[in-house]
Amino acid sequence: MPPQTTRLRRDARENRERVLLEAAAVFAEHGLTATLADVAKAAGVGVGTLYRRFPDKDELILAVYQARMDAAVTLAERSSGAADPGTAFREFIEHGAHDFATDRGFRELVLGGLTDALGWSRSGAATSLSAAIDRMNTAVSGHLAVLLERAKAAGALREDVAPTDVQLINAAVQSVAGVAGLARPGIHHRLIIMIVDGLRPRDDSSPMPVAPLTEEELSRAVRNSARDRDMPPH
Amino acid sequence: MPPQTTRLRRDARENRERVLLEAAAVFAEHGLTATLADVAKAAGVGVGTLYRRFPDKDELILAVYQARMDAAVTLAERSSGAADPGTAFREFIEHGAHDFATDRGFRELVLGGLTDALGWSRSGAATSLSAAIDRMNTAVSGHLAVLLERAKAAGALREDVAPTDVQLINAAVQSVAGVAGLARPGIHHRLIIMIVDGLRPRDDSSPMPVAPLTEEELSRAVRNSARDRDMPPH
DNA sequence: GGGTATGCGGAACAGTTATTCCACTTCTGC
DNA sequence: GCAGAAGTGGAATAACTGTTCCGCATACCC
Fold first, then answer.
1. Which of B65, B79, B103, B174 suits a disulfide with B88, CB 3.0-4.6 Å?
2. Cβ-based neighbours of A37, under 8 Å, separated by 6 or more
3. How far is the CA of A108 from the C1' of C1 (A)?
4. Is the pLDDT of residue B115 over 60?
5. What residues of chain B, 12 to 41, have a C-beta less than 8 Å from chain A?
């Protein structure tokens, strides 16, 4: 049963499409802090129309980016099964960096937990938006673990790299890719080369001083990083 | 001639000290978006008192972090003249990561341009705050260039690494160090090892696909990344 | 065509935060 | 001690943004 989108009046359906399209453009350029008034104006509708279609801003954001999050999972899955895991690994990171470099909103969405440029986080409760992000991260992480093992077996990756390390590296590269890309599109390829070269095995690799984060530790940290609203009484 | 701090009434001077101390604590824990009301409450004064001492929030932030910015420059300078440039380079990055991992406000301040988690940026005009950050970045960058050359000469660093590359790497590491540190303090040492290992020379280094950013490009991008307030009419 | 459910725009509301203002205190020099 | 300059607290203000509401318009079905 398709959602009741079918039941929408024609003009309403057209407006909905336009809103999603323009919202994507506005978020991509100005980030998720763009106001709903701006989105509405870009789409040529009133704010009321936004609220008729989407319960709140979070749901609009989710609607705009759901497909892209699914695509990220698909990419990870495909990479994990690629013929040459070493190359697939590098391409995986490059692809992610590209997405982030070209869409400020997507960057804020996925890195939001790691850099909390945002205010939403409610009372720590799981909005459907944060739930979707969690789901994406979990899925990507699973495929990534497979990819890493295969890359190590192929001798393309140092043995002491954990999936959570790659997630941190990914976040780090991506958080910079966006802004650096303003100066010169594609500049993040330098970063990636330097970092990926560092992940290849070598005889004189430095020893790792601490154990990698567990998945649990990482996801808890990402969640917690957006906790606020609590001031020591004095 | 010392600033008219000397002319402050005793209670006023004490309040000022307390404000700076508590503001540092509040910013470190909650970031620069902490409200002035929160800072005032923590210091046990009214908001009016904050405004009597500091023209606006930016100036308070500057007062809180000026010393630390100076320290960063000093560190870069000392590193650039260190006996072992390879080790000094790694320690330079580790020291920066430590600072960022332990002070959310400082992280937002310095990376603000690169991740713009903030609203200030005014009309692109140079506030004294952003001017101070620019000055710090320029100074650090100068020392960094010397350090890199020495490290390359010592065979500790691949030849194709530019100072701007290191600034990007630094920003990338630091943007993650803070949040990842919530999960496990010091976890950023893994990131640093992986990355620094990647910067060492090796026979089969991957070729760099694009030229490094110039200083000019980088600083312009950092400045521009916070430009907003402009919506395509339709 | 006409009646009605559906959809629309945007003014009004609520909550948040930087900043201002001023009646009231507190220190300081004598 | 005391006059008055210097300092203080916190209510009021202004600006911004997510969300609600409702009188009016539009598309759909007959």
1. B79
2. A47
3. 52
4. no
5. 26, 30-31, 38, 41
What gap in Å lies between CA A96 and CA A166, rounded to an integer?
A: 12
Asked if B227 contacts B121 with a C-beta cutoff of 8 angstroms, the reply is yes
| pLDDT tens, position by position, A49-71 | 999 999 999 999 999 999 999 99
Length of chain B: 234
| Mean pLDDT, rounded, for B127-148 | 90
Residue B111's closest chain A neighbor by CA? A176
Give the residue from chain A lying closest to B181, CA to CA. A221
The band of A156, judged by pLDDT with boundaries at 50, 70 and 90, is very high
Q: How far is the CA of B103 from the C1' of C25 (A)?
A: 36
Would you say residue B180 has pLDDT above 50? Answer: yes
**Cβ within 8 Å of residue B163, ≥6 positions away:** B141, B144, B145, B148, B215
Nucleic acid strand D within 7 Å of A195 CB: no
Question: What residue is closest to C22 (Cα–C1')?
Answer: B48
- Across the interface, of A31, A208, A228, the residue whose CB is closest to B193 is A208
Span CA (B55) to C1' (C18), Å: 11
Q: A3 vs chain B: nearest CA distance in angstroms?
A: 30
Q: How far apart are CA B39 and CA A1, in angstroms?
A: 54
Range in A25-34, A93-102, B98-107, B123-132 the model is least confident about: B123-132
Q: How far is CA B163 from CA B145, B167, B184, B198, B213, in A?
A: 5, 6, 30, 15, 9
> pTM for the whole thing?
0.86
Sign, CA dihedral B19-B22-B28-B32, equals: negative
pLDDT of amino acid A227: 47
| pLDDT surpassing 60 at residue B175 | yes
- Identify nearest nucleotide to residue A49 by CA to C1′ distance: C8
Q: Residue B234: pLDDT above 70? A: no
Contact A189 B180 (CB under 8 A): no
